[in-house]
Specification:
The chain is mainly α.
């Protein structure tokens, strides 16, 4: 039986009061919700910030194939706790699923992720749109991309959304072209429109300006020059010329710079471009172009370069007059100019004047590279004549006066060797320690470490050594680019990272040190190892003060050396060095010198592949090991054949790696002659006496590579060096 309702009026009043309270709170609910949301988002961002400094399991999976990392990522993604690790795992799982066209599962991973992973929020929306597209929910896909454009209008990721939306409505393509012409996706839209209607010079100019570093854009530049020359502004010509220059079309660049604004660099490139790629006998044209710089911009760095170039292409007497101008107007260039002037005076038979010039060089410019080179030439000649004291006396100042000279490591080592010969053992040890601590990256640091008795291997025992190798488990943080780019790079989302960085660099054809290093990292992950390694190496050649400062700071980081001495094809190298009982670091070092890890590279004489195996040698070795249907461009085949041959040269010379490596380059016949002629009791003297300049440099480079791989990746050697520098 139901109980009667008591005090009905009070209930009504109470419910009315409750209703009034509820009605009264409705206008404030959005603010309260917004406040709660802000607090929650702040907590998430604080958590993510704290997580950034912690070790990351997800980042160690960046280069692991999707099918091999899926289970681990799922474990991390299924955590009940919000964290940067969970967000990264969910993002990578979604990315892997989308690549397999599995839109539904990807959408589940992406649900709400933009709030938990604000660093990549625009990309979460981009991928969510793709997920909807794959599940055939086209309207939701478009709405998601529109949301991205509205919420992140200035993000370069919006350009990718506009690219996708352009497939449904061409007005979005117009928006992309207007706002994001630097983005590769936008440039794809532009190229498609040019296919449909080639007569659109404004679109041609956008590609010339924003896709300047692409050699394929030279066709665009050619069309602009040929068909629209009269309509181009000086600024247009500047963009065209810069693009030609960046793609090494120097003569075309020189012609375009003639119509660009009159600037010192442009005038210099007019002259230099025609000098590098001459059309016929144009020496007088080049000289006149350099002379224009001296008239119009006489105090600029380009004027100094012009004087140097004019001196090199002029007759001795005229060249000396240019050098005198250089000495007078540009004190920083005086030392090199004096050294060059002394050589010209010798050619003219004016040895007395040349001697006075060199004395001025020694007394007035003791710290210059020119002085270091002169000192070394005297020391080397003295050593060849057996005068160790004179050699030591002339070379020793290089180690203190010219510590940054390229000759400094070599001078320090040989100062030690000559001190040993003179019985000055303390001086010798000091010189060797100086070479190791001041120039740890040098081949001569390794030779000095051997002299100091360090356990770093020597020519006669490297082959049998199996050094421990410890490689980084995660990618380092690039020094340039946006936070989104850096996160993509570390996650191993290489395609998106490369596209984004290219867009971020915009219309620039020249990068600073950190940007160029970052660009080199991207080349390395694409397997463009020759370009990547060389680009890192050439950073030291940027000679303006700001670039030098950036480079010096960068080379103090492990990341710099990892990029300069990478480990492509590590598994292949390990496999075949174990079978041949060869030191894997020695093979890696030889490969770096031979091919810069380019599997399809070919030399002018026909050597091919990673270890630059000659076809005849490859055929001979293949017959020995009964290998059929091989290709020298195939990494596995090439390393198989190359390591067999390197093992053969080691067997030929009783496991002396110096002779084996020299033989790999110059052939066993030549090396056998050198051994008889020069002896090998002192291997360092033997290296200096190798008559083939290429082979001498090859030996020093391979073993210099070996030392660098050892000091970078072997913890024991790293600790030795760290202790020595304390």
């Amino acid at each position: 039986m139901l109980k009667p309702i008591k005090n009905k009026s009070s209930l009504i009043v109470g419910s009315g009061l409750l209703g009034l309270v509820l009605i009264g709170t409705i206008p404030f609910a959005p603010k309260a919700i917004e406040l709660i949301g802000q607090r929650q988002q702040a907590r998430i961002e604080q958590t993510l910030q704290e997580d950034r400094g912690k070790p990351s399991v997800v980042l160690t999976l960046a280069e692991i194939p999707p099918e091999q990392r899926q289970q681990k990522l799922q474990e991390i993604a299924s955590s009940d706790t919000i964290s940067l690790e969970r967000s990264r795992a969910r993002y990578l799982l979604a990315a892997d699923l989308l690549k397999k066209y599995e839109g539904g599962p990807a959408l589940r991973q992406l649900e709400g992720l933009e709030n938990e992973y604000p660093d990549l929020a625009p990309l979460v929306l981009l991928k969510r749109g793709r997920g909807y597209e794959l599940t055939n929910e086209k309207t939701k896909a478009q709405k998601t991309w529109q949301e991205l454009v509205e919420n992140y209008p200035d993000s370069l990721i919006a350009a990718q959304a506009l690219y996708k939306l352009n497939q449904y409505d061409s007005q979005y393509g117009e928006q992309a072209i207007s706002k994001f012409p630097q983005h590769p996706n936008t440039q794809e839209i532009i190229r498609k429109r040019l296919q449909d209607n080639p007569q659109q010079p404004e679109l041609l100019l956008l590609l010339a300006r924003y896709d300047a570093n692409n050699r394929e854009t030279n066709g665009i530049r050619d069309r602009l020059v040929k068909e629209y020359s009269s309509k181009l502004t000086p600024e247009d010509w500047q963009a065209i010329a810069d693009g030609y220059w960046a793609t090494k079309e120097y003569h075309q660049a020189a012609l375009a710079y003639q119509k660009a604004p009159r600037q010192p660099q442009n005038l210099y490139r007019i002259a230099r471009g025609q000098q590098i790629q001459p059309k016929g006998n144009n020496k007088s044209i080049v000289q006149a172009a350099y002379q224009k710089i001296l008239v119009e911009f006489p105090q600029t760095p380009e004027a100094a370069l012009a004087l140097q170039r004019l001196a090199k292409i002029s007759q001795p007497e005229t060249a000396i007059s240019y050098l005198d101008q250089l000495i007078k107007k540009f004190p920083d260039e005086a030392a090199n100019a004096l050294a060059q002037k002394a050589k010209l005076l010798n050619q003219l038979g004016r040895q007395g004047e040349a001697a006075k010039i060199r004395q001025t060089l020694l007394s007035k410019y003791p710290t210059s590279d020119a002085t270091a080179k002169y000192r070394w030439s005297i020391a080397k000649t003295a050593a060849e004549r057996g005068d160790a004291l004179k050699a030591w006396t002339w070379a020793q100042p290089i180690t203190t006066n010219n510590p940054d000279s390229s000759l400094a490591p070599k001078a320090a080592f040989w100062v030690g060797k000559w001190a040993q010969k003179l019985g000055r053992l303390d001086d010798a040890d000091a010189a060797f320690k100086h070479a190791v601590t001041r120039h740890p990256q040098s081949y001569y640091a390794w030779r000095s470490a051997v002299q100091l008795g360090w356990n770093v291997g020597n020519f006669n025992n490297i082959r049998q050594t199996l050094p421990q190798v410890v490689k980084p488990t995660t990618r380092s943080l690039p020094p340039a680019g946006s936070d989104i780019f850096k996160e993509l790079y570390r996650l191993g989302e290489d395609g998106e990272a490369i596209t984004l960085f290219q867009a971020e660099m915009g219309d620039r054809t020249e990068f600073d040190v950190n940007e160029s290093f970052t660009d080199a990292l991207l080349k390395l992950i694409q397997g463009k190892n020759l370009q990547g390694i060389n680009q890192v190496w050439y950073l030291q050649k940027k000679d303006d003060p700001e670039s030098q400062e950036q480079w010096k700071k960068l080379r103090e980081t492990p990341e710099y050396w990892h990029a300069l001495f990478p480990f492509p094809f590590y598994e292949t190298i390990t496999k075949w060095t174990q079978q041949r009982q060869l030191n894997p670091l020695l093979v890696t070092s030889l490969m770096r010198q031979e091919s810069r890890f380019e599997p399809e590279i070919a030399s002018p004489v026909g050597a091919k592949g990673l270890m630059q195996v000659m076809p005849a040698t490859g055929e001979w070795v293949a017959n020995k090991i009964q290998l059929k249907n091989y290709s020298l461009s195939n990494p596995n085949d090439n390393v198989n054949l190359g390591t067999w041959y390197l093992n053969y040269t080691h067997d030929t010379y009783s496991n002396n790696s110096l002779l084996a490596v020299a033989s790999y380059n110059a052939g066993p016949g030549n090396v056998s002659k050198w051994v008889k002629r020069y002896q090998t009791s002192d291997p360092d003297v033997f290296v200096e006496k190798i008559p083939f300049r290429e082979t001498k440099g090859y030996v020093e480079s391979v073993f210099g590579n070996y030392w660098n791989y050892l000091r970078i990746y072997n913890p024991e050697i790293g600790k030795l060096l760290e202790k020595a520098t304390q």
